[in-house]
């Protein structure tokens, strides 16, 4: 019975195949999906950082917007709401 379970080279055939798979997978390089993921992630990160830099630069250099002048009619209406009579009335 002991002779039935012995394999040539003392390595069962199932484990011998596993060793071949490990040896073949080592030299393949990067996974293509990983390269695409890194490329898209890098572009997105660059876009977001660029937008932040441009936003901060614009805040420092562009003067604030001028407010529209209030019309005389609206000023008169506001004074009447506050209880101040308009001059000449």
TrEMBL record:
<comment type="function">
    <text>DNA-binding protein that specifically recognizes a negative element (S1F) within the RPS1 promoter.</text>
</comment>
<keyword id="KW-0238">DNA-binding</keyword>
<keyword id="KW-0812">Transmembrane</keyword>
<dbReference type="Pfam" id="PF04689">
    <property type="entry name" value="S1FA"/>
</dbReference>
<keyword id="KW-0678">Repressor</keyword>
<dbReference type="InterPro" id="IPR006779">
    <property type="entry name" value="S1FA_DNA-bd"/>
</dbReference>
<keyword id="KW-1133">Transmembrane helix</keyword>
<dbReference type="GO" id="GO:0005634">
    <property type="term" value="C:nucleus"/>
</dbReference>
<protein>
    <submittedName>
        <fullName>DNA-binding protein S1FA-like</fullName>
    </submittedName>
</protein>
<feature type="region of interest" description="Disordered">
    <location>
        <begin position="63"/>
        <end position="89"/>
    </location>
</feature>
<keyword id="KW-0472">Membrane</keyword>
<keyword id="KW-0805">Transcription regulation</keyword>
<keyword id="KW-0539">Nucleus</keyword>
<dbReference type="GO" id="GO:0003677">
    <property type="term" value="F:DNA binding"/>
</dbReference>
<keyword id="KW-0804">Transcription</keyword>
<feature type="compositionally biased region" description="Basic residues">
    <location>
        <begin position="63"/>
        <end position="79"/>
    </location>
</feature>
<comment type="similarity">
    <text>Belongs to the S1FA transcription factor family.</text>
</comment>
<dbReference type="GO" id="GO:0006355">
    <property type="term" value="P:regulation of DNA-templated transcription"/>
</dbReference>
<feature type="transmembrane region" description="Helical">
    <location>
        <begin position="33"/>
        <end position="58"/>
    </location>
</feature>
